[in-house]
Amino acid sequence: MKNALYYPYIEFHDVNWIKAMAMYYENIYRIVPDNVIPNDPEELQPLLEDFSIGAMIDPVRYTQETAIAFLEKSQNWQAAALTGTDDEDEEFARLHAGKIDRRVKELFNSLGYAENDSWMDIPIGLASNYMLFLATEIGKRNKLNLITDEWAPWTATTYFNLNGGADECLLYFQEKEQYTDDLFALFCIIVSEIVPMNISEIPAEKIFNFRIKRKDEIANFRNSMSALYEELQKLEDPKVRYDYISDKIKDLKKAKLEYQKSADIISAKKWFGVSFMGFPAPIALGSLFQIPTASTVALTASSIALGGLFNIKNSEIELRKLQKENPVSLLVEMSHSFKNYTSSRGGGDMNFHAYNCMEEYVSD
Asked: Can you spell out the DSSP letters for 65-82?
C-alpha cells in the first residue's frame, strides 16, 4: 500500500522515524479530532507543510462502528481488563472525547473515568486497546496500512485482527502429523536496510526533495514489496507458485537497490532499519522455504527474509476476509539487522521477539 495511518498517537514523537517513513509512503495520515492542533517537532515542519505527511483524519464518522466492535469484544475480556486498580502507580493516558462514541463513554463513565474539558484520563491499557480498534476501523475503510514504531500496538492489532486465533509458535510442517489440520499460519516478510544510517543528519527539507525527485524509484520499491507481500499471502498451495514468488523476490531485490542508489541526492550513508509485515498463508509455505520454528530464512543476499510466527485457527473464509480488510503490518526502525535483533535478549530473532510479544499480550 502506498498510503498509511500512523497510530496510536495524535502527535509525531520520533523525528527520525517519521522522516524514514516519509521516504517510503506517499501519504501518512493520523487520527486527530476536530479543533485539536498537534504539537509536532519544529524540525518536521517542512515535511508537514506538504500536507501529504501528517494529514488529519477526524474520527467522528468512525466512532460508531468502532464502538460496536469494541463493546462486542470487551464482553469476552476478563473483568480485570475493564476495571481500574487501586495501584497508585497505575499509568493513565489522555483520550480525547472526540474519538469516543457515546456508548463507549458510558462504559468508561461507569468505570469511574469522567470527561474533563473534552479529555478523559483512562488506564493506558484500556485506552490503547480502544485506539487500536479505532485505527483498524479507519484503516480498513480507507485502505490504509497501519504503521507504528512500537511493538505493543502491532501485537494488539494483530491479535484482534486474527480474532484471538493465534496458537503458540509455528510448527514445522510435516505431512501426516497430527497438527496438519491447522492449514494456515501467520508468516512475515522482513526487508532490512531501508533507512539511511545518517537519517538524523538529513534535514526534513531534503527528505521533501527526495520524495519529489525520486518519486518513481520510491514507487517501484513500494510496489515490488507489495507484490511479494500479496503473492506470499495467497491461499493457494505455495508449491504451485514457487516460480512466481521467486520472480517477485528478485524484483524486490532489484527495486530496493535502485531505491538506495536514488538516495544519493540526500547523501545517504549506509543503511539500517527493518520493514516487518505479517500475512496469513498456507502452512505449507513454511515447508517450502524450510522455516524452522519461530525463526527467519534469508531469501536473498540483500537482507530480504521470510519467517514464521504461529499457527492460525481461523477458517479459510475468515482469512480471506482478513486479507481483504485488515492488513497485518508493522514498519519499525531499529539499529540492528533482523539477524541480530534479540541478541541482547538471550538469542532468537525478530520473529521470536514478535511471538513473545504476542504471548505476553495474551497473558496480560
From this structure: HHHHHHHHHHTTS-GGGG
Q: Where are the domains of the chain?
A: 1-149, 164-363
Q: What is the pLDDT of residues 79-111, one digit of tens each?
A: 445 554 555 566 788 888 888 988 888 888 888
Distance CA 244, CA 247 (A): 5
What the block records as the C-alpha cell of 253 is: 531485490
Of 296, 287, 329, residue with least CA distance to 183: 287
Q: Among 325, 360, 318, which Cα is nearest to 163's?
A: 318
Confidence of residue 313 (pLDDT cuts 50, 70, 90): confident
CA 300 to the chain's CA centroid: 23
Strand locations in the chain, DSSP E? 3-6, 27-31, 53-57, 92-96, 115-116, 119-123, 145-147, 166-167, 184-196, 271-282, 296-298, 304-312, 328-332
